[in-house]
């Protein structure tokens, strides 16, 4: 009796989907309630005594907090400053990290080992340990009280972690692919741009989202380098709103909601890229 060829068991695929669903539910349970309370608090009428218990639907509903946040905190100008920094720094950081990671994946293994070890050592250095020398350099160059110190780290890829992530992604590509590029007489730059980079789009989407969130929420660097209120970024503007009295706390919460929306949009776009990539892989 001739046996039938059996396909792969659907059990591992079902288990993977189940774990993904459970993970999504866990994330929703952890993050959604605080977000709901944040939005609810921002819709509370400013000037009223704080409620002793959290209210999911405040009475009365009011958008006055948003109007006062934009007026008192200068959030519109601060948002434009933060957006300017993010629009320049995020793509620059991702491109530099991708170039460095590709070069690291293509150079000699001994040199790669040395560079990877140096990158891991650099990751162990606390960021606060570099504040004083960086401030001294920017002050010597006359760049303090400008947005340049917030963008300049992007010229170095922002963090060695980004370079290492790209290095692992490019290293995971088949060696035959690079050999085919050599046969086609493609330069290393064209190989990186036309062949390798499109194949690691999920990595690019994830690092772009991470870099945007870290740049958008950066508080320490603007606090050190920016003195002119017209150049304040969004975290510094929110700090000024946090100093309001408790009866005006909805104004601060409204500012927090305004600051949160761009980060959520970028995260949703990156998540869509991941899901789209998974669907194409399964297909």
From TrEMBL:
InterPro entries: MetI-like, MetI-like_sf. Keywords: Cell membrane, Membrane, Transmembrane, Transmembrane helix, Transport. One of its GO terms (cellular component) is plasma membrane. It is found in: Cell membrane. It is a multi-pass membrane protein. Residues 79-270 form the ABC transmembrane type-1 domain. The keyword Membrane applies. GO terms for biological process: transmembrane transport. SUPFAM superfamilies: MetI-like. Pfam families: BPD_transp_1. Belongs to the binding-protein-dependent transport system permease family. This is Sugar ABC transporter permease.
């Amino acid at each position: 009796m001739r046996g039938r060829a059996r396909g792969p068991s659907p059990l591992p695929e079902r288990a993977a989907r189940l774990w993904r669903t459970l993970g999504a539910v866990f994330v929703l349970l952890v993050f959604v309630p605080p977000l709901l309370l944040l939005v609810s608090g921002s819709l509370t009428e400013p000037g009223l005594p704080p409620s002793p218990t959290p209210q999911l639907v405040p009475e009365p509903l009011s958008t006055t907090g948003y109007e006062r946040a934009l007026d008192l905190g200068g959030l519109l100008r601060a948002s434009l400053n933060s957006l300017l920094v993010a629009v320049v720094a995020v793509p620059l950081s991702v491109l530099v990290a991708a170039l460095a990671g590709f070069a690291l994946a293509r150079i000699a293994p001994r040199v790669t080992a040395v560079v990877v070890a140096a990158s891991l050592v650099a990751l162990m250095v606390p960021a606060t340990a570099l504040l004083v020398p960086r401030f001294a350099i920017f002050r010597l160059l006359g760049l303090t009280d400008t947005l340049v110190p917030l963008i300049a780290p992007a010229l170095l890829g922002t963090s060695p972690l980004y370079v290492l992530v790209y290095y692992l992604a490019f290293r995971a590509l088949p060696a035959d692919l690079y050999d085919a590029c050599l046969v086609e007489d493609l330069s290393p730059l064209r190989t990186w741009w036309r062949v390798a980079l499109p194949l690691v789009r999920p990595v690019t989407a994830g690092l772009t989202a991470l870099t945007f969130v870290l740049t958008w929420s950066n508080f320490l660097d603007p606090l050190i380098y920016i003195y002119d209120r017209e150049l304040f970024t969004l975290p510094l503007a929110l700090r000024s709103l946090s100093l309001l009295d408790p009866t005006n706390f909805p104004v601060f919460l409204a500012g927090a909601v305004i600051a949160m929306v761009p980060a959520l949009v970028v995260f949703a776009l990156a998540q869509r890229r991941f899901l789209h990539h998974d669907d194409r892989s399964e297909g």
